[in-house]
Amino acid sequence: MLLRLLGCVAALAIACGQTAALAEPSPAELLQKASTNLKDAKTAHIQGTGSFAITSGLSISFDFKLNGDVEIPDKSRLATQMSLLGQSLAVDTITIGGKTFSKGLIGSGWTVTAANDPQGAVLDPLGQTDLSAVTKVTEVDRPVIDGRKTRHLSYTIDQSKLAEKMKLQSASTPSLNVSGATATGEIWVRTDDNQIVRQTVKISMDMAGDLGIPGAAPASGTSTLDISFDLTFSHLGEPVSPAITAPPTQ
């Protein structure tokens, strides 16, 4: 009788485990669920680090730190600190209404450019939250972050979709040709609410022509651009204060 009871308990435990496993989303399903949840939250505070490098005809590289807020799908306000050519720079950017406003690179006031140019699209971390072109999602591990369980996933971006996106963006800059774009990333998703808490992204592409860098002549050959982000997300769904609005320009 005891053996039969133990057998029933074991069978029940196995069945419960199988049911839980079946109920758990796959890595690809979890990634899309987390992406949807971030969009539904509509707001987030972002902190992070990154690196930027152009090699070949023109060689420039620097690391940067950023801090700010985003309103999904198309608003962000970020403060970025970097060291470029031996100088420390503090750059403020606001992306809103299809335009990017910048202060700290040229002059003392705000300047405005189209937000859909390739450089702006790559440098704006808000663009990295779009996971619609993700492929090859795998699970790495399940660490605890700030006392909460997460699932750590890795992914690649579909190369053909990324190339199509970059070509559409480079159409706004006819003198710039973008090719060979690749991107990979990792993401940490909380298991209790399926929200993204951290994301890393690495992007590489070949660029030829006017790179849009002040004082630099158009590249005579092809340059390779490499950029990476390591972002943390917090205060999801909380009101952004002050509101993100377009600043006055020169």
Instruction: Using the coordinates above, name the CATH class.
Output: Mainly Beta
Shape descriptor: globular
What is the correct CATH architecture?
Answer: Clam
The separation of the N and C termini measures 87 Å
Major β-sheet annotation: 12 strands, antiparallel
Overall pLDDT level: 79
Poorly predicted residue ranges? 1-9, 118-122
What is the total tally of β strands? 12
The domain count comes to 1
Radius of gyration: 22 Å
- Judged by helices, strands and strand pairing, the structural class is alpha+beta
Query: In the CATH scheme, what's the topology name?
Result: outer membrane lipoprotein receptor (LolB), chain A
Order of helices and strands: HHEEEEEEHEEEHEEE
How many helices?
4
Fold and architecture overview:
The structure is a single chain. The chain has one domain: Clam (outer membrane lipoprotein receptor (LolB), chain A). Strands 1, 2, 3, 4, 5, 6, 7, 8, 9, 10, 11 and 12 form a twelve-stranded antiparallel β-sheet that branches. It is built from four helices and twelve strands. The protein has helices at 2-23, 27-41, 118-123, 159-170, and strands spanning 43-55, 60-71, 75-84, 87-96, 99-103, 111-114, 134-141, 144-145, 148-157, 176-190, 196-209, 219-234.
